[in-house]
Amino acid sequence: MKCHDFTTSLIWLLIGAGISAWSVAALDIGTLQHPGPGFLPTLCGVLIGGLALVVFAQARRRETGEAGGVFWSERSLPRVVATVLALVAYAFLLERAGFVLTTFLVMLVIFTHVARASWLAGILESSIVTGAFYWVFGHLLKIPLPRGWLGI
Amino acid sequence: MWESILLGFSVVLQPINLLLCFVGVLIGTLIGVLPGLGPGATIALLFPVTLGMAPTSAIILLAGIFYGAQYGGSTTSILVNIPGEAASVVTCLDGHRMALQGRAGPALGIAALGSFVAGTVSVVGLMVLAVPLSSFALRFGPPEYFGLLTLGMTLVVYLAQKSVQKALISALLGIFISQVGIDQISSAQRFTFGLGELFDGISMVPLVMGLFGLGEVLLSLERGISKISVITHVKNLLPNLQDWKDSTWPVIRGSVLGFFLGVLPGGGPTLSSFASYGLEKRLSKRPERFGNGAIEGVAGPEAANNSATGGSFVPLLTLGVPTNVVMALLFSALMVHGVQPGPLLIKQYPDVFWGLIISMYLGNAILLVLNLPLITIWIKLLKIPYGILFPLIIMFTLIGAYSERGLAFDVFVMIVFGVVGYLMRKCEYEPAPLVLGFVLGDILEESLRRSLIMSDGSVFIFFERPISAAFLIFAMLLLISNSIPLLKERLKTLEKVEII
To answer: What is each CA distance from A77 to A70, A106, B81, B224, in whole angstroms?
Structure first.
């Protein structure tokens, strides 16, 4: 029980409070005789908040709350962020540009910028991955994949 | 019973089912061998592919992946010292040590043979236990289900590797996420932001793919892509006479222990393998050999994790309660095909039940034949650099998330849960309780609300009925027993403060 427990427990406290407040404001909690749709979500929010306080208290007692070291190192973070951004772009482009073009472009970014392959190797690897996935899922398993601008 | 077994054989021996059983265990072994893609994510990925199949065929394929992965996982543990999947963590301790001593062959051999024996024991256990348990479960009403589900969740939380409080938060978040969508009792919209894609709730496949597939990849990327060294010299796969002598009882004990720990809600292959290792070490006359290449340390846990796969099916098929992530996915797969897992499954769908059981038996035999001769291929697979492997895993998660409903929205959902899974792991919050909370959330809510309506708001209904009372008291005892060390620590601190 050490890794950034102070900060994370406060975040959980906010999440718990948010869930409860949202449930109470937007849904009918009902009564014990007739519990409404907001009953369990409110309970979940309250319990999450309560447990967050326990985690906070434990971290405080052991005085090791922030002993987990640097949460994000400058060396590792860019790779994680680049991957997540590439995937968000994938989700955004998939139905517009189609499976083949989107997959090729996003795989190219991942191979060259995250896996640090050369451009030539990246183009080759992305082409193989795109072709293989298209063939297996689109052709063999007949999963309808979005076609997009290129029509494939 | 014999008629039912014959029915099972007639189902499995249909060419398509036999083929799917083979494909399932092959894929299972493959993903078991490859670190980074576990059976949960793979089943989630292949889930859409099974939509066009008959329910029996679908469940035979998906179950094959589950128990196939237990076989494959040991190969990576022994040869690379990296667990292919969670249930093989403990095999690294002695399995890899044996490989370093030039005894990779017997380690792989006993893992495969022990797994086969255990697989057989668990199938027999499933056959014997499932029918009476499903008759017993017919007595269950909403309060009993609420008690059972609470116990299941408590066990998962109790067995958490890091912190019980954190596991509880994770499970509660899962329950909350399961509430998104239209409420089944009142038809009110909950937390949908008016988005049509959320009316049916959040889909399980993108959630599992994100938490377990993408979350793991992001964490590996952060820790750095390192080269792994594989032991490639494998000879004499068959254990010698002394190995057999040392391993026979561990395999038998592991099989029985694994099965019963698999049956427990919250139990499963991972817990079973750890429990078996602990038991063998305690029973051994020379416990100092453990960690230094003791074959019992491979035989027992490998038998236990395989046996637990069969045990896990018991609560799913008889009570309709999935006890781990893989069972949760199989629960959804059956539901999608219109088969309701629960006490009536054996009567209403005997072909699904007996077909599955016999397929597991045949699958175990196929695995034995498949695993040992194909060892050289698995070794080659292990040499694939992570720089090539992780983009492939990412592609599997993307296509898996998209293909279930054909919506780019689900790809966004998968990415969100990928980031959530990554952050949770970083802060030592386990994602498995979240998935279990998510899966059981709907049934838990329905049983809670219906119980309260039945009792006109009295919470004593859960303690007036013996079965639900027993479940809840057991759950409370578990939580109390977990709090005792914390309370003791608190008291000690207070005493110190008073002395000062």
So the answer is: 11, 19, 27, 10
Average pLDDT for B320-330 = 81
The confidence score (pLDDT) of residue B486 equals 62
Q: Which residues pair with B446 in a beta bridge?
A: none
User: pLDDT value at position A21?
Assistant: 94
Residues A99 and A136: their CA atoms lie apart, in Å, by: 13
Name residues 99-138 of chain A within 8 A of B (Cβ): 103, 107, 110-111, 114-117, 125, 129, 133, 137
Asked if pLDDT for residue B274 goes beyond 90, the answer is no
d(CA B379, CA B228): 12
Query: Could you say which DSSP state residue B86 is in?
Result: G
Q: How many beta carbons lie within 10 A of that of residue A117, not counting itself?
A: 20
> What pLDDT was estimated at residue B194?
86
Asked if B355 and B56 count as a contact pair (C-beta separation under 8 A), the reply is yes
Give me the DSSP letters along A62-114: HT-TTTT--SS-TTTHHHHHHHHHHHHHHHHHHHHH-HHHHHHHHHHHIIIII
Which chain A residue shows the shortest CA-CA distance from B185?
A: A37
Q: Which tokens go with B212?
A: 């377990």
Burial of B338: CB neighbours in 10 Å, binned 0-12, 13-18, 19+: exposed
pTM of the model: 0.81
Selecting from A5, A48, A91 the residue whose C-beta is nearest the C-beta of B415 gives A91
Instruction: Single out the residue of B130, B107, B46 nearest to residue B310, CA to CA.
Output: B130
Spacing of C-alpha B36 from chain mean position? 15
Distance from CA of B299 to the nearest CA of A (A): 33
Q: What is the pLDDT of residue B170?
A: 92
Distances (CA, A) of A21 to A7, A11, A49, B407, B474: 21, 15, 12, 31, 32
What was the pLDDT predicted at B249?
94
Confidence of residue B260 (pLDDT cuts 50, 70, 90): confident
Whether residue A80 lies within 8 A of chain B, CB to CB, comes out as yes
This complex has an ipTM of 0.92
Q: Which DSSP string do the residues of B222-241 spell out, in sequence order?
A: HH--------------S--H
Q: For residue A22, which residues of chain B lie inside 8 Å, CB to CB?
A: 191
What is the SS3 string spanning B128-169? Answer: HHHHHHHHHHCCCCHHHHHHHHHHHHHHHHHCCCCCHHHHHH
**Percent of chain B clearing pLDDT 70 (strictly above):** 92
Contact B236, B106 (CB under 8 A): yes
CA dihedral B363, B368, B371, B373 (to 10 degrees): -130
Q: Tens digits of per-residue pLDDT, A96-144?
A: 999 999 999 999 999 998 888 899 999 999 999 999 999 988 888 778 8
Helices (H) and strands (E) in chain A, counts: 5, 0
With b for 16 or more beta-carbon neighbours within 10 A and e for fewer, the A51-90 pattern comes to bbebbbebbeeeeebeebeeeeeeebeebbeebbebbbeb
Q: Where are the domains of chain A?
A: 5-62, 77-140
Environment class of A142 (CB within 10 Å of its CB; exposed 0-12, middle 13-18, buried 19+): exposed
pLDDT tens per residue, range B32-87 = 887 766 787 778 777 777 877 888 998 899 889 888 887 888 888 888 777 766 77
d(CA B494, CA B500): 10
**Residue type (1 letter), B181:** G
Closest Cα partner for B431 from B34, B85, B161, B148?
B161
